[in-house]
């Protein structure tokens, strides 16, 4: 005989699939990495982002009866939960974060939040673009390939890259700028096709 905890879990599993149309594990595998990235950009703490992302999924699972698929896609609801948890954590730790603060090369947190809280097609498009960009980076020649990999994939700071490569910051930024221009040119047509497909 199953105990109450097991019965409750089974009930939630069935309700979750009924509400979303898919198993919990499907969404977990698809969105957990994106959720970690999203929350880490907000709280600037990767370990904390892991905890918040896990908590977000648990809350979504436990409160699935509150989810209304007529009002929002599950991914939007999930990321809203994560955003609220992250903002509450920031408030509790007495850190202030402005969503208008520039967080990376002219992009603001407000821009990022707006982008993330779209639909699943957006995530598929971003993933395809990222894969395409990665393949183009692999084809780059030096001196561009290594510096753009360190900056865009490994997320190293300009200073750390300059120290590792043994060049000054001005030269490094010039190389990264040139590499980005090459990548933009190489991916332009492919991105246009992808964007047209997802419109």
SSE layout and pairings?
Layout: H1 4-20, H2 24-43, H3 46-62, H4 74-92, E1 102-104, E2 107-108, H5 109-116, H6 120-139, H7 144-153, H8 158-165, H9 169-198
Antiparallel strand pairs: 1-2
Helix pairs in contact: 2-3, 2-4, 3-4, 6-7, 6-9, 7-9
Commentary on this structure:
The protein contains 9 helices and 2 strands, in the order ααααββααααα. It has 199 residues and is mostly helical. It has a two-stranded antiparallel sheet. Strand 1 and strand 2 (107-108) form a beta hairpin.
Kindly summarize this structure in a few lines:
With 199 residues, the protein is mainly alpha-helical.
Task: List its salient traits.
2 strands; Arc Repressor Mutant, subunit A; 199 residues
